[in-house]
Amino acid sequence: MRRFARVALLCLGCGVCSLLYGFSQLALSLEQEPGGGRERQARDPAAPGARAAAGSAGRGEAETGRYSYMKTHPSDKMHLAVVACGERLEETVTMLRSAIIFSIKPLQFHIFAEDQLHESFKNILDGFTNEEKVNYTLYPITFPTESAAEWKKLFKPCASQRLFLPLILKNVDSLLYVDTDVLFLRPVDDIWSFLGKFNSTQIAAMAPEHEEPRIGWYNRFARHPYYGVTGINSGVMLMNMSRIRRKYFKNDMTPVRLQWGEILMPLLKKYKLNITWGDQDLLNIMFFHNPESLYVFPCQWNYRPDHCIYGSNCKEAEEEGIFILHGNRGVYHDDKQPTFRAVYEAIKNYSFGDDLVHSLLQPLELELQKTTHTYCGRVYKVFVKQLTKSIRDLYARRSKGR
Question: Which of 26, 174, 203, 224 has the smallest count of CB within 10 Å of its CB?
Fold first, then answer.
């Protein structure tokens, strides 16, 4: 009996020694790992509790790792979104026509409009039956239920809808948003190609609000942070929405980074008494705190009256022409800037299938020559320089396709 007791004690002692040795080796291996086991867990976004423990720094590192392997691979179909409210039906349709005329790859239009405009949009767009490369989807205007009234009255009716596109169009990877008063003077394909130029941290592309700081609005009057020297204009906004949905944004409200859906309402609450241009101001604030996330394209991709009414100040347009015309301030519908209005009327009146040179370009040039008494009219050739090339390229493509 004593012999069995001694054997049992001996086995128990050996087991205890083995366990102690195992724990000592495990502790040694953890000490030799870079950063130690506890810190490693905090940096791992998949580890339980990592989001709360890591805080701002942890999210930033997780974000860097996420974007390091993400590449932009635009699909064959280009997605274009617009928001139309009030008296914007004709203007929106003219914009869509300009996109259709020159674009090469198929277009998917995402049209957000007030309910009373849906039937009119449908009737007009269904008339583009010969344009096989075009599809469209109509959406109602929708805002988060708990704050819908506040978002609706921000700046202009429905304007802030664009802020929620990444959250609504969950299955769309990349998107070009444009205001209703935009006209394409070259293929949408060309601005779409900027997606392939984004680096690993960039999620969106916009143009500066001004080229000349002496006439800039943000640098002279803004009461909130804004991007760069003169701010950015959101009338033409190219977005990698998959990246937008994944990103955690630095901000001045909390040390914890917030995702797109989390940051919008807090930003509005903090700055609503300080912003003038609504959703565009909120985007400026976002990219002020996250400048590495923005790709800035030249002014010729978002050419506005400010680029010529104070003297020509978009050098890229002087050299290569205007690529995208943005007739803000209602210049398509009054006589203050007849150069802009002439381009709008020419595209609005063009019928698909007509000869572009005789039905669009030549009549437009004649009208533009009547505007030389205005500042923008003095540089009217920049309004047709790229348009002429786009027409020539289009006919060259058609000739090769025969």
Answer: 26
First to last CA, the chain: 103
| Percentage of residues of the chain with pLDDT beyond 70 | 78
Q: Do 239 and 195 form a contact (C-beta atoms < 8 A)?
A: no
pLDDT digits (tens, 9 = 90+) for 47-83: 333 333 333 333 233 333 222 223 334 457 999 999 9
Closest of 317, 318, 321, 337 to residue 329, by C-alpha: 337
Give residue-wise pLDDT tens across range 142-195. 887 667 667 776 756 687 899 999 999 999 999 999 999 999 999 999 999 999
- Token readout for 392 is 């020539």
b/e code 297-311 from CB counts within 10 Å (16+ = b) = bbbbbbbbbbbbbee
On the 0-12 / 13-18 / 19+ scale of CB atoms within 10 A, 34 is: exposed
Q: Kindly write down the DSSP assignment for every residue of 46-74, as one continuous string.
A: TSTTHHHHHHHHHHHHHHHHHHHS-----
Whole-number Å distance between alpha carbons of 94 and 91: 5
Q: Are strands 134-139 and 107-113 parallel, antiparallel or unpaired?
A: parallel
Q: Average pLDDT, stretch 40-53?
A: 31
pTM, 2 dp:
0.80
Q: Do residues 122 and 151 lie in contact, with contact meaning Cβ atoms separated by under 8 Å?
A: no
